[in-house]
Amino acid sequence: MNGGIAVAGHICIDVIPEFPSGQSFQQLLIPGRLHQVGPLEFSTGGAVLNTGLALDRLGVPTRLIGKIGGDLLGTVCTESIRRVNSRLTDGIIVDSGGRTSYSLAISIPGEDRILLHDSGVNDTFCADDVDIDQLNGAVVFHLGYPPLLRRMHQNNGDELVALMKKVKGNGVVTSLDMSMFGPESEAAKADWSYILKNALPYVTIFAPSIEEILLMLDHKKYRETAAAITGDFRSRMNPPLLRELGDALVSMGPEVVMVKLGEEGLYMRTSERLSSCLSALIPEKHRASWQGRELWSPCFKTAVAGTTGAGDCTIAGFLCGLWKGLSLEGAVKSAVGAGACNVSQKDGISGILSWEETQAKIHSGWELLPIYQDLTDWRWDAEHRLWVGPNDRLNEALS
């Protein structure tokens, strides 16, 4: 896997019932009634399998690192991976006495998913489970879902810091994704502001969703915003708030901050500097496009069958674009392209196309969804079909 991407962290099996279209969650799930659904599907899930298998489908040499139990669901998980690529099971750790994690995904057509989750052996995942020698020359290391990896957020995130520091110290680009957590969960008791302050200096690319990062950095603002909104939480995220979050996160250490906004697209903020490990992946002609940027890309219009794994596949598209040596704009469009392909199917990865097919769709005039925000101080980049922010270093060159 020399020169590829390693994906570590959370692994689970998604259990996905098929729901009929044309009805809302409230109409379908009424207590005390029998609700007719379609066939049950088992799908690999979690950051490792969603992002990792998507990268494999995009043609990137990929290594998966995570834990499963020695139970029936663990066997289902292993067989599912082998059917994609038997080599991808090499880095999977089997805890013979442990319980494989699963999520019951309630994914109703046209609505965001609801997940009922058991973490299983993910609770024991730690820094020692990632052996630098076994990364086999990976140039990017992606870790997914620390809030669902108990040891990663216990003790003020010491294991998370140790892992990211160890990997980045070996000259590898580090990438970190988050996940939502319940208000009564152990993760909700963690001081995420403190954890991120200590971990992000060792993170090159930070890719949370807007809900996740607002919940972690400002519980009060998250609660107030969520309470004030009927409908999609993300539809009320405005450019000043995103800029405030982006600047705050970049100041903590990452060179690239990518905030996932669901149907509202993808917000990007990058630092002025490029580390040697990140520069090594970007051809000289594109390096300026990665420095001091503020971009907002709309999503591509797609008939949504399900949103399971959408954020993970968006990250896979972005990391593949970086691995291919694209400009920042090219990597961003690859991200939203992969995300759009993902939601065309109800499971985590079957909608993902090859890299060549994805790029062909992106450059075919694929229709974009509107962004319902006040972008009067932003500039539209017609070539790349995205918005350039007022704090973008190249903004004047595009005027």
TrEMBL record:
InterPro entries membership: PfkB_Carbo_kinase, PfkB_dom, Ribokinase-like
Gene3D superfamilies: 3.40.1190.20
Ranges of residues in domain Carbohydrate kinase PfkB: 6-350
Domain of life per record: Bacteria
Keyword hit for Kinase: yes
UniProt entry keywords in alphabetical sequence: Kinase, Transferase
GO molecular function annotation: kinase activity
Database matches in PANTHER family: CARBOHYDRATE KINASE PFKB DOMAIN-CONTAINING PROTEIN, HEXOKINASE FAMILY MEMBER
Family statement drawn from the similarity comment of this UniProt entry: Belongs to the carbohydrate kinase PfkB family.
Name used for this protein in its record: Carbohydrate kinase family protein
